[in-house]
Amino acid sequence: MRSSIAYGVRPVIGTTGLSDGQIHELAIFADKASTGCVIAPNFSLGMVLMQQAAIAASRFYDHVEIIELHHNHKADAPSGTAIKTAQMLSELGKTYNPAPVKETEHIPSARGATVGENIRIHSVRLPGLIAHQEIMFGTTGEVYRLRHDTSDRACYMPGVLLAIRRVIGLKSLVYGLEKLV
After folding, report:
1. E-assigned strands of 27-77?
2. Closest Cα partner for 49 from 138, 164, 155, 128?
3. Could you give the CA distance from residue 161 to residue 174 in angstroms, rounded to a whole number?
4. Pick from 129, 131, 147, 152: most CB atoms within 10 A?
5. How far is 88 from 51, CA to CA, in rounded Å?
6. Which residues are catalytic?
7. 65-122 tens-digit pLDDT
8. pLDDT score, position 13
């Protein structure tokens, strides 16, 4: 990606394998070159809407868990989309899932991985799945679920096209499709 920026190419990247440090370094490089680039963990516009709905719901719920489900050929877990969703919720300055009791995990990670502001992410890998994410909010007497399912990878193309069209006018790195919508 650094090479493409150095040559004035404005990359649109859909990977989730970059660390925060790598993204920060690329952002500095893109800023110095005044070259726009987009990195998005997910190009689905439906996922952007789901994340925005989760941000709105977080005002009313203190308990949240993220379940992401993908095909069994996906090498990373949790997905970059689930991590990004947890980061977005964590940026709201709220700590989630206050424990009413001291929990004991008899099997490590049985309750999922804890990230950000005490948000749990659970990962499932099975043949027959493409990409799915559910965000569950809970409070006394109710559960609020947001779910996004894909049935064809073509659903990512509108987001890819949006990023391609918008990257031309950028002079720095943008991380996340939600910043382009």
Report:
1. 37-39, 63-70
2. 155
3. 15
4. 131
5. 8
6. 70, 74
7. 999 999 999 988 999 899 999 999 999 999 999 988 998 999 999 999 999 999 999 9
8. 93
Q: What Cα–Cα distance (Å) separates residue 180 from each residue in 29, 60, 91, 125?
A: 20, 26, 18, 30
How does DSSP classify residue 23?
Answer: H
Sign of the Cα torsion 83, 89, 95, 98 reads: negative
pTM of the predicted model, to two decimals?
A: 0.89
Pair type for strands 131-139 and 142-149 = antiparallel
Within 13 A of 72's CA, how many CA atoms are on the CB side? Answer: 3
- C-beta of residue 43 within 8 angstroms of C-beta of residue 163: yes
CATH assignment of 2-40+155-179, among 3.40.50.720, 3.20.20.70, 3.20.190.10, 3.40.50.300: 3.40.50.720
Nearest to 166 by CA among 4, 10, 8, 3: 10
- pLDDT tens digit sequence for 3-26: 888 888 999 999 877 888 999 999
Q: Which of 102-111, 144-153, 156-165 has the lowest mean pLDDT?
A: 102-111
